[in-house]
Amino acid sequence: MRPWNLERKLVLAVLALFLVPTLVAGTILAWLYRRGVFEDPSALLLTSVVGFAVLTAYLSVTAHGLGRALVRRLQEIQRGTELMATVHPDHRLAVHRGDEVDALAEEINRMADRVREARGGLETQVEHATRALTDERAKLSAILAELDEGVVVATLDGLVTLANPVAQELLGAPTGSLLSRSLFDFVDREKVAHFLDRLRAGQSTAERFSLQPASGAVLHAGMTPFLGGDGRITGFILALRDVSRPARREEDQRRVLTETLEALRGPLSSVRSLSESLLGDPSFAPGNGSRPLLEAIHAEAVRLSGLVASVGVPSLMGLAHAPWHFEQITVSDLIVVSLRRLARDETDRDAVRVEALTPEPRLRAEVSALSAAFAHLLGHLLALRTPAGGVWVRSSRRRGQVMQIEAGADGQATLARLEELLDVSVTVGPAGRLSVREIVRRHAGEAWAVAEADRVAFRFTLPLEETRESSRTGDGSPPSGARFVGAGTVSGFGDGEAGPDWRRDFYDFSFFDQMERSLLPADRARALDELTFVVLDTETTGLHPEAGDRVLSIAGVRVRDGVIRRSEVFDALVNPGRPIPAGSIRFHGITDAMVAEAPLIDVVLPAFLRFAEGAVLVGHEVWFDLRCLEPDVVRLGLPSLTGTRAVLDSLLLSQAVHASTPDHDLDAVAARLGVRIQARHSALGDALATAEVFVRLLELLGKRQIRTLGQALDAARAARTRRMLPS
Amino acid sequence: MECGAAEYNRRGLGVMSKERVVIVEDEPHIVLSLEFLLRREGYEVASAADGEEGLALVKRLRPDVVLLDIMMPKRNGYQLCQAIKSDPDLTSIPIIMLSAKGQEVEILKGLELGAAAYVTKPFGNAEVLEAIRAALEPRA
């Protein structure tokens, strides 16, 4: 304890305050008493008043002095501490007398010293870390600068933290101007946000879509998230590739082909009809010398009609298709993006009721444009609806793989007014403005308005992203009494055509028999849970390998111990050595340009077989894949796919497990078993989806006491037999 | 097999009241071939070369059936179809669309707008006559 600490000083001060006036007053009173002043009452009163006043003044001055002395010191300490903590870390408090207040000041000074030391250490660490980071960044920038692809790293709100020169060029940003700017100054915010939401929701680990920046380019974008320390997504990386040339070329070719065909159809109709009419005319009756010439003209017209009709059918189903670089999206997701574009409050957004199909098929759409079109129309529908009325978006699947979407409201408007709204130009991201009709036309669709007494609607027909196992399960029959006739359409709509039955044409069960014959009893006895499987899928130029269709892509993924080994994946593009038909591109999105540099099947197939060595092959409708691969296996002298290994078909296994269910295409089975398919119609995407399906089927087979390879093959054979029986 | 008004005529159903067909089509050779065919089959035929003229003709003649091209000047076939179907006086007239646009989305649009049939070019005479016959059938 210090000798003159604050406590003692305070005690002495209080005592002094009491004793000094007491002694002074007592002395004065004794002196006055001796002088006889107390005998005079007025003198006594005067003395008392003066004494009290003097005493009060004394106490006030002394107490005030004491308080000021203490408070000033504390204020000094407060100000000094504030300086140390903020603008002047080197400031220290003055220490004067060594009392408790000074002890406090000393302690604060020591603490400031420690903070300064810690800060110094931290700054050194930060400096080291920053230097290391700068080095890494420089290396990364050097690597990125050499890449042919554009790379952009951005935060969740779109702030660009890293971009290579190619990205700047592709996005149309002046050199060096992309850093620290918003990515959304260059590309459509809502579209990027949509795919970012999918990543954040865990719906996929990477997203692919196209972007059309203000530069006018068409970019393929691959988006991958990156995680912060807490495991949450804190930003994303965009890999950008310029596909303008092939995309535009395809669009141009498609447009020219369509326009040429449409231009041919009219004159052909005239020639055909006129020649046919003349042949029925009595002046050209048999025997007339000109009749054979007229017959020849008519025969040629009919032949040309057939040719135009067949060329004009770009796919098996006679469908138009959207450009291959458009992305796949469900109607529900499209409406979510559209509503996000609406600058309206939540109440209005909630007023839009979306009635979706289950499972929901996908469209191939350029999300920026189509969502902008829907946002424009939904905005008007919300404005048109009656106070108690609703706004809805409902989709239905029509025959022939066409999706009809109706966006409507309870309200009133003239048909002309609604049709005008379809001609209004809307902003499509930074890329420019297009009318709703033009946007729909670019999607190979049609749009029109409907005005009834108390409801208004816009209807769209858009081609669906078709599945290989496409079914004819649409609700959609055409309006009653309506029929389709004519050279270009009859074949696409006739009952019994192009439905699931087409699969039977190439469903070759001879592979199954060959495989079973070659299997040893010991192989059949092996437990399913100790086998290694390779789940495969292929994409091809078409459905008829015997007519020259070739493999474009092969993918496989290993499954072992009931677990999909995602790190053990085979995925390769194949140069088919022939042009890819436009009709098939919309299934798989693989174009001639994409496979121009890819290896031939002669290289890829042996590599795949090495990958699949010792494994049981699994695929959904795997016989189609085998049938496509087998000719090359034979040509290259490789061991037969089915003569040396077991093969399981997940479609037949699904039928074995759920015999009473009619739908066993991959989408239906995946939906039934709770498997979410990503990147449908890419070989790897389908292989991974099939692997997920297969792992779940293995579990269900186990519950049915099907535990060995032989038992699984028997179950598949039984399902196959049921499949072949007429229903 | 070709059948049409001629067949009805032979049955004695249509001699006194020839069925009227309006063709709205901007390609003159197609109009020529259709007029030739339909007149030979016993129909009364009138034609217009664009949508505006077509609508006026339909309003004036109230035909039994309209053959309607889609790609036409002034008012296209879809718009004309909408106009006819939204007019209470004309809505019952069956419309057969004749089009070089042969994709499903286009065909569905035509049928959704109220067309009774959709014939894609290049068509044969039998297809057109069959479509007309079927369109008139409920009224015969």
Notes on the protein architecture:
- The complex is a heterodimer of chains A (727) and B (140).
- Chain A is α+β, with helices and mostly antiparallel strands and 727 residues long.
- In chain A, 49% of the residues lie in helices and 17% in strands.
- A five-stranded antiparallel sheet of chain A has the order 2-1-5-4-3. Chain A has a five-stranded mixed sheet with strand order 7-9-10-14-13. In chain A, strands 18-17-16-19-20 form a five-stranded mixed sheet, with helices on both faces.
- In chain A, strand 3 and strand 4 form a beta hairpin.
- In chain A, helix 1 (6-34) runs antiparallel to helix 2 and helix 21 runs parallel beside helix 23 (683-703).
- The longest helix of chain A is centred in the first third of the chain and has 47 residues, at 100-146.
- Chain A is elongated.
- In chain A, 36% of the residues are buried.
- Chain B is an alpha/beta fold.
- Chain B has a single domain, classed as Response regulator (Rossmann fold, 3-Layer(aba) Sandwich), CATH 3.40.50.2300.
- Chain B contains six helices and five strands; from the N terminus they run αβαβαβαβαβα.
- The two termini of chain B are 19 Å apart.
- Mean pLDDT of chain B is 83; it is low at 1-16.
- Classes of the chains: A alpha+beta (727), B alpha/beta (140).
- The interface between A and B is large, with 56 and 47 residues.
- Strand 15 (483-486) of chain A pairs parallel with strand 5 of chain B, so a sheet runs across the interface.
